[in-house]
Design goal:
Shape of chain B: rod-shaped
Shape of chain A: elongated
Helix content of chain A: 55-70%
Structural class of chain A: alpha+beta
Number of helices of chain B: 11
Strand content of chain B: 15-25%
Order of helices and strands of chain B: HEHEHEEHEEEEHEEEHEHEHHHH
Largest sheet of chain A: 4 strands, antiparallel
Strand content of chain A: 5-15%
Distance between the termini of chain A: 40 Å
Order of helices and strands of chain A: HEHEHEEHEHHEHHH
Radius of gyration of chain A: 30 Å
Number of helices of chain A: 9
Oligomer: heterodimer
Number of strands of chain B: 13
Strand order of the largest sheet of chain B: 3-4-2-12
Strand order of the largest sheet of chain A: 3-4-2-5
Distance between the termini of chain B: 30 Å
Radius of gyration of chain B: 33 Å
Largest sheet of chain B: 4 strands, antiparallel
């Protein structure tokens, strides 16, 4: 019989080897101010993403970048994507919004008739029931409100015009996304809260169902391991390949949290069953036996999920590629940690407790 | 209850197949039952707005709903097909415009606060030009709330080239004020101001006692229509700021759709083959259950309706991978029970009963995280989470009803009494319960 529990320190070491480089890269993100580590997409950092193609297919990214710099966007990046499309990334531009300070207008709540004009003989009519909202930029009559593929209005319209003057006609726009700074700040906060609350929920659920706090805690430890593995790998990928973390990444994390505990539950369920059936046998042996009994189904249940995710990764297109990759890494890591970490930690905890009890007994005897 | 399972399975299955293949009107909601594709799969524009506080007034849920309704009416007036206007969170409104790739104009229409004011220009003051800001020190005579109706005025005989007119009718109080003022100030100017910007500042030609007036100016036809829309549907109680916009070209959407459908087909196909090869007869039952599952889930998508986005398709494919997990756990457990000497039928029963705990606990964990995503996520994430939630619930339903009923039926046929169909050795296989020694032996082994 293969002894997984007896070799648990080796598996702890393996997990440490997998997670530590990732953790270093994650920590590098704030230390290097984003130069290394996780790369955040515009979902988090705010910005405009604009994928366009010029009629003149020979227009290069460098040319576009030069025009952007001349227009006052020096920090923009331009990359070539498929079918001669160019992907432009800049600070957020082209959001219509009212002026930032909602300055109370003079008619706010006082008596408007007090003012000099004295035109109105009826003092009660004009103070409208609600203070008037701050003046906002109205649809100023602009000359060309023509609906087409290429934006014509606002800052983005100006940019489009400048690009077309310099580099010829923009043939088509594939996609255009702008995220303001408000949303991005919210998302980061929300992501951390969601992952925290999700883990807590699962801790409570497992503790409740198994009536065993240790099982709850060790299952969560395995989850945290999985999250760290995925985030760490993305921090490494971000540093070496510029892979970005977007809003869907958090979704992937929570899905991993929800799914990777499945295998742990199967093992724990068997441990519970075997404990009552083989009462008196040493705990590590029961756990090891339970793992071996369920390892086949743990691998098979994960295999079906991995199959579907691989299909999405290989054939699903680039838009969700990294989302699927995050799920895939998380689920593979989840299967590993369920088999080799969660139950092993449970045994370590039991032994530590038994050891403490033994010392206490010994102390009492002395 | 058990006797009812076959009936439930058949009724639900037929309803699902009907809903998937037939487009009809949902009798409960009155909406058409159809597969809805998200903006990323069909192309379109999505804009997210944040309600802005004014002074110390902060927007509440009522204001959010009011603004949503006003925006919806404004958007509907533009003739965009199937726009979606939803509230989100505490201070957000999301507008989705399928098939619209450049929505500059609609965005301006939506973003206009729409506060109309009638501002008298005192005699001797400079008359503000169209498009300039009105002097905020000037008090308005009355505001847009006094407006009863507004419409495009087609009587253009008296207008200059490029000029267009909008006719309006005032309510009683406004009409009285307007009548009094115009009577006393003939020859002076009067500005019609929208959100602080002058739209037109006509000279008062004569007293206007009946509350009927018109706004003239050099508008494009689109601006004219937008203005009428804004006037008709009233002012927003709070101004809006765009916090994000996204537009996706129709060709890119189609490309995404094609790829994700292909990936889904390959992924699901691989799972079906795996189940057949690895679990044989029970695997075949799982395949039937999975096909059934797919139909039920698709039917639910169409009935609710769930808007399928790229992430939603991913969630669906993922949910198929998860849905077979219940079957795997049951079959593995049944195999174990067979090997311990149980007869086929009771092994299958024990497999279901013993595996159910793990299946239930696992699915609840997935539901916990998916529900969090659904409640707190933004719209793309909510789509993903909703699909996952529906998938998990449906998979539990198909596991207890269809898989179980079908397997019970199958293992009673004598054709199914072959150990090779279950992937166990001949001496581990007991098709029928035997009395006597063997059972006792089996019990002692457990």
């Amino acid at each position: 019989m293969f002894d997984i529990i007896g070799r648990r320190r080796w598996f702890y070491l393996l997990s440490a080897l997998i997670t530590i480089p990732g953790v270093l890269f994650i920590l590098a993100t704030p230390l290097t101010d984003g130069a290394a580590g996780l790369k955040f997409s515009i979902d988090y950092s705010g910005g405009t993403l604009w994928e366009i193609r010029f009629t003149d297919r020979a227009v290069t990214a460098a040319q576009v970048r030069a025009v952007l710099a001349a227009q006052g966007y020096p920090d923009s990046t331009v990359a070539t994507t498929s079918n001669d499309y160019l992907l432009i990334r800049t600070e957020p531009i082209g959001l219509f919004s009212p002026p930032p300070s909602p300055s109370p207008s003079p008619t706010a709540s006082g008596s408007p008739t007090a003012s000099a004009s004295g035109a109105s003989p009826s003092p009660t009519a004009s103070p409208s029931p609600s203070p008037s909202p701050s003046p906002s930029p109205s649809p100023s009559p602009s000359p060309t409100p023509v609906g087409g593929e290429v934006p014509t209005e606002g800052d983005l319209g100006r940019l489009a015009t400048a690009l077309q003057v310099e580099l010829g006609k923009i043939e088509s726009v594939r996609q255009q996304t702008t995220v303001g700074p408000v949303i991005s700040a919210e998302l980061i906060q929300q992501a951390l809260v969601l992952i925290g609350v999700g883990s807590l929920g699962i801790l409570l659920w497992i503790t409740l169902r198994f009536r065993d706090f240790k099982m709850g805690v060790t299952a969560i430890a395995a989850l945290v391991h999985d999250v760290v593995v995925v985030v760490g790998i993305f921090a490494i990928l971000g540093t070496v390949a510029g892979v970005q973390v977007d809003a869907l990444f958090v979704t992937a994390m929570l899905t991993v949290i929800g799914f990777s505990v499945h295998d742990t539950i199967v093992v724990y369920d068997r441990i519970r069953e075997n404990r009552s059936r083989h009462a008196g046998e040493p705990f590590p042996l029961i756990v090891n036996h339970s793992i071996l009994q369920t390892i086949g189904r743990s691998l098979n249940t994960s295999a079906t999920v991995v199959m579907t995710l691989l299909a999405l990764l290989l054939f699903g297109g680039e838009a969700i590629r990294y989302f699927v990759l995050a799920l895939l890494i998380g689920i593979v890591s989840g299967t590993y940690s369920s088999i080799f970490n969660a139950s092993a930690l449970l045994v370590s905890w039991h032994e530590w407790e038994a050891g403490r009890k033994a010392t206490r007994v010994a102390m009492a005897r002395r | 209850m058990r006797r009812l399972f076959p009936l439930i399975v058949v009724v639900v299955g037929m309803a699902a197949v009907f809903s998937v293949f037939v487009d009809f009107a949902n009798p409960l909601t009155g909406q058409r039952v159809e597969t809805r594709l998200g903006l990323d799969l069909q192309g379109g524009t999505r804009v997210e707005y944040q309600l802005q506080a004014v002074g110390d007034r902060t927007p509440g849920p009522d204001a959010q709903r009011t603004i949503r309704d006003i925006i919806e009416r404004r958007v509907n007036s533009t003739g965009v097909s199937e726009p979606l206007v939803q509230t989100q969170g505490f201070d957000r409104i999301v507008v989705e415009l399928p098939g619209v790739s450049n929505a500059d104009e609609i965005r301006q229409l939506i973003g206009t606060t729409g506060r109309l004011e009638f501002v008298p220009i005192p005699a001797g003051s400079p008359v503000p030009a169209q498009g300039t800001k009105v002097d905020p020190a000037l008090p308005p005579l009355f505001s847009g709330e006094e407006l009863a109706s507004a419409n495009v005025d087609f009587n253009t005989s008296d207008l200059g080239p490029g000029e267009r007119a909008i006719a309006f009718v005032l309510k009683t109080e406004g009409a009285r004020l307007f009548g009094d003022y115009t009577r006393d100030h003939v020859g002076e100017n009067f500005a019609i101001v929208l959100d602080g910007t002058v739209i037109s500042a006509p000279v008062i030609q004569s007293s206007i006692p009946d509350g009927r007036g018109r706004i003239t100016g050099s508008f494009t036809p689109a601006e004219q229509v937008n203005l009428v829309t804004v006037l008709q549907f009233g002012a927003l109680p709070f101004p809006l700021a765009e916090v994000s916009t996204q537009s996706i070209g129709a060709t890119l959407g189609l490309d995404f759709l094609r790829k994700s459908v292909l990936a889904a087909a390959i992924g699901i196909g691989a799972v079906l083959v795996f189940m057949l090869v690895h679990y044989r007869l029970p695997g075949a039952v799982a395949v039937v259950a999975l096909v059934y599952y797919i139909f039920v889930v698709l039917a639910i998508f169409r009935l609710i309706p769930v808007t399928l986005t790229l992430a939603g398709v991913a969630a669906f494919v993922l949910s198929v991978g998860m849905a077979v997990d219940a079957n795997i756990l049951i079959f593995e457990r049944s195999k174990e029970e067979l090997r311990s000497g149980k007869a086929l039928y009771s092994a299958i029963e024990a497999g279901f009963n013993r595996a159910w705990n793990s299946i239930f606990d696992s699915n609840v964990s997935s539901l916990i995280t998916a529900t969090l995503l659904f409640v707190f996520g933004s719209s793309v994430i909510r789509g993903f989470a909703l699909v996952l939630i529906i998938g998990v619930l449906t998979s539990m339903f198909t596991a207890i009803t269809l898989s179980r009923t079908l397997l019970r039926w199958v293992v009673r046929r004598s054709m199914a009494w072959d150990h090779r169909l279950y992937g166990v050795a001949a001496d581990e296989f007991t098709p029928l319960p035997k009395t006597g020694l063997r059972v006792r032996e089996a019990r002692s082994r457990v």
